[in-house]
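Deliverable D2.4 — example input (structure tokens):
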């Protein structure tokens, strides 16, 4: 077991290096970097404190050199690459070019929004989809099975962003009813509310974003659950259990349930982490929720490379660790699986 875990951890290193190296190389050829954007702002005559100088319409070579030194572009690319790897090895993600904060503090400040969306999306998806999948497997081929399959597939076919727009038009004051707020996770007076008022206010704000996030997730988990249960129900040991006179409920929950849970349990870590970091950009943008998805998008647009590379490094590391945990769940759920089999 420990030798397998050690091998997997060692394999993470070249994967992580490959992702960072490829991204760093692409960045070198992307036009409109932070220096170019700063020069553009200077030429527009805007005034600000971002660069520690008064903005004016003229930009001379000395100012450009100062900007290049400020952002670290006065060093050769290879030197900057090794400096980046050295910082990441110490889990130092650097500082944002434009926000004047460390990347770590930015990520921590955006986590509450992403955690709210992720936790609700994950639990609602599994709490609804798993019982629905079991019911569909038991009633396979029935009208209930056909109708629910049609509904979840229609939900899967509708992008979350499109559903979010529809919800805003219907219930966010777009053209019909003003039932839910349009932005943020809480109201401006949230701090003055009672405990019950805070809970109600939070649920009031999170309702539309969560509906837009979870509807498209039902189909995959529901159909996976149904197929897993159907596969187990048709096996010989189920026929034997029924022949012994066991009730259908006992056969289903005592014998079929544990074996059918294998693909679901194994997918838990990936689904839980993925709910935080994937598919939230458009939802966060649409509902004006300042989370990790919106942070990543704005960093790419503004060429805030420390944030881009720092979040990529962190998310890739989390993804690799999640994959390892998923493999370990195979053995935890089904002891018949050995680590030697996982290595093949």
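Example output (designed residues):
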């Amino acid at each position: 077991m420990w030798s397998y875990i050690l091998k997997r951890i060692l394999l993470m290193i070249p994967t992580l290096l490959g992702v960072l190296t490829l991204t760093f190389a692409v960045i070198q050829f992307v036009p409109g970097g932070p220096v170019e954007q700063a020069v553009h702002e200077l030429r527009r005559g805007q005034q600000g404190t971002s660069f520690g100088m008064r903005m004016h319409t003229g930009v001379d070579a000395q100012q450009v050199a100062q900007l290049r030194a400020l952002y670290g572009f006065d060093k050769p690319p290879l030197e900057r690459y090794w400096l980046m790897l050295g910082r990441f090895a110490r889990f130092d993600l650097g500082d944002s070019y434009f926000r004047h904060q460390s990347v770590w503090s930015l990520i921590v400040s955006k986590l509450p929004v992403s955690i709210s969306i992720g936790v609700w999306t994950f639990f609602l998806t599994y709490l609804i989809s798993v019982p629905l999948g079991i019911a569909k497997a038991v009633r396979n081929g029935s009208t209930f099975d056909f109708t629910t399959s049609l509904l979840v597939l229609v939900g899967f076919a509708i992008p979350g962003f499109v559903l979010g727009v529809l919800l805003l038009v219907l219930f966010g004051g777009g053209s019909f009813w003003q039932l839910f707020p349009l932005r943020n996770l809480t109201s401006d007076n949230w701090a003055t509310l009672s405990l019950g008022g805070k809970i109600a206010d939070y649920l009031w704000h999170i309702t539309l974003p969560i509906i837009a996030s979870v509807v498209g997730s039902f189909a995959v988990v529901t159909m996976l659950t149904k197929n897993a249960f159907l596969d187990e129900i048709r096996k010989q040991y189920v026929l034997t259990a029924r022949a012994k006179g066991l009730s259908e409920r006992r056969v289903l929950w005592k014998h079929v349930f544990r074996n059918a849970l294998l693909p679901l349990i194994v997918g838990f870590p990936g689904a839980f982490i993925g709910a935080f970091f994937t598919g939230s950009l458009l939802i966060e943008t649409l509902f004006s929720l300042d989370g990790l998805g919106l942070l990543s998008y704005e960093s790419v647009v503004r060429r805030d490379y420390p944030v881009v590379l720092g979040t990529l490094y962190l998310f890739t590391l989390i993804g690799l660790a999640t994959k390892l945990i998923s493999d370990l769940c195979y053995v935890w759920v089904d002891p018949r699986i050995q680590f030697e089999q996982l290595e093949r």
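The two ends are 14 Å apart (CA to CA).
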